[in-house]
Amino acid sequence: MKVFVLSQEGKPLMPTTPRRARLWLKAKRARVMRQEPFTIRLRFATQEYVQLAKVGVDTGSKHVGVAATTNGEVVFQAEIHLRDDITDKLTKRRQYRRNRRGRKTRYREARFANRRRPAGWLPPSLQSKAEATVKAVCFIALFLPMGAVTVEFGSFDIQKLQNPEISGIEYQQGELQGYLLREYLLEKFQRRCAYCGIQGVPLEIEHLLPKSRGGSNRVSNLTLTCHPCNKHKGQQTAAEFGFPALQSKALQPLKDAAHVSSMKTRIVERLRSIFGPPKVLVTYGYETKYKRIQVLDLPKSHANDAVAITCELGEVVKPFAMVHQIRCLARGQYQRFNGLHSEHKCWAPRKVRGFKLYEIVKAKGHVGYIGGRREKGAFVIKDLFKGKTLLEVTPRKLRRVARPTQGWMITRLPI
To answer: What is the pTM of this model?
Structure first.
């Protein structure tokens, strides 16, 4: 384990050992700047001889791995858990806004969709993930002298992911060539309900995996059903409804692959604008896999992939014993009323009895974070990694362990 060091002017120096850092702190020749990762700042002048660290970034749609190596050993590695609530929050905000407009300006004229999107526009959900990835690299630059930054490019062939044997005309034209969607489904299911097999009745297009549970509008996730079966199935999957063979025809979702493919260019462009084009390099998944398995012999994880990305071909580094888990947090809650008919006012201020949301606390032998506050005065404590509710306790039984910093909740997990 290493302790990160800043100079008297605040510039990153080479990491030091815990013993030396302890002696400096005891002699008041340094002061603590950050708890996670532990960083100190010197109170005396020193020469700034540094060896630049190499940083690797393993991009992803749900988790991002980052690692930094110097002097042949890993000095920092972390997994960033990206936010996945942006879409739901925007949907709720749109509903509130439309209801408010209906109440306040009942006769307002219709506004058409005449807004133009700039070049390189990303949806807010992907924009949040791309910014969090860039922010993680900038965070490392706060306590380590930065050298090269290597980003893994994830390029996915969508059709090959669905059908590895696809080739020829089918690969070029796709399965819907020459068909409209409904005509294709009618021919595929022989104009009968996929569940009860009835014919000669109006048929409806139905999702094998409901959209409310992450299903898509791809043709492999669609089927034909009569109205009674569609109503009876509800929000169940086809397997839960009693048709596992039909569910197996729905190919794996490609949302994550599409997200990574959309974000990769934005991430590299932002990093090059911050650190300069010569310092930002690009690698590919097959190189990372070879170095992680054949050279380093590490198990599959985002943090280990990031370690492999930092290494040159044939280079072996000493692995790190701890992985930092970094969870991206929302900025705040803007909802003023809740309840079925918005009859309850959101009462909780930013702080209650000195505590606020997402602080890491200890209570009754459990360590978790504050995930909610009850009106009766109890706090909801949730698990750090799974997010499940552990217990509800009053504030007087809590002991603070750490506070969120820079929009992140940072914890350490031993390998």
So the answer is: 0.78
